[in-house]
Amino acid sequence: MRDRKRMFVTGVSCLIMLAFTGCGLLRQEEEVKNQITIPSYDASGASYGYVKRGDLENAETLFLKLTTTEEHGLRFGISGISIDKVYIKEGDSVSTDQLLAELQSEDIKNEITSLEAKKETIALDIQHTEQLLEETRQRTEYIEEKEDARQESIGRYQLQLQQLDNDLLQTQGELKEQESKLEKHRIYADIDGTVARIERYGEGFLSDEKQVFLTLQSTARQFSGNTKAENDFEKGQKVSLLVNEEEYPAQILRAEKSEGVTEVDVRLQEGYTIPEDCTYGEVLWSTGVVKGVLYVPKNAIVTVGEKSYVYKMEEDGFTNPVEVQTGTVNADYAQIITGVEQDDMVMLYE
Fold it and tell me: Are the CB atoms for 190 and 74 separated by under 8 Å?
């Protein structure tokens, strides 16, 4: 805080307690023989804010820790097939879902092409038959003795449509089966990263589904943590990663729920970097809005042990610590339940 006067507590020994968050050092507070001591100080020239009343977004916080560089071993999904193409080499940069290598699979590709053409033909036949059926239903010029013939035509077209629908479903199933086979013949990147290693391959080398064929190394810094709070985290979800009070765009790599706990991996988006000494981060997410509550800027709150305080400006220009009870806390503001009133002026920490 600007112009904060140096404060001394004399006559007793002091235990200075330090708290770390992100990669920055939190404010230091003094604890003397388990009795909290927070001196007053002159507030002239310091920044300040006001206690306000309004609606406040409720948020939960996921605390994360930087994990080691990640390596992913990738393998083919089938054994005994010749390796056809490898599209990358060691040291290349790759992106998630990029095709890296594939086995010989011309017969599967040809079958997929044939099934796709068959599917398109069936779809056109369905469209044509539906048109004929509708035209037959709309005809009113039939004389009474030919009505039976019209109904017979309608029934025939309906049967044709039913058979075509069955053919389409069967073709779609066969197509899905062939596409699944093709996936086992291919390797795709599952992360953004660098190709660290590729196993030997060439003439006479066959695939082995139990053996890693190539290894990727993540180029992005990854954070991991867990939470018991209710959440809707999903793989691929975009989030804001808060590191040392700075926000960075990030993406959820993994979100697995088990026995009430969600394990989460978060990766910084490509092209963004954070200071090397930063090892902790946070993700905040909204869980609703509380209405008509008192709140102050988050940086007005001083936490000492299990208690929270604000420095309230008095009429004489000095500030005194006031114990407060807090509620909802989000990235910018903290709800005040008791301790201060609306329009009270409070000191802000840098």
Answer: yes
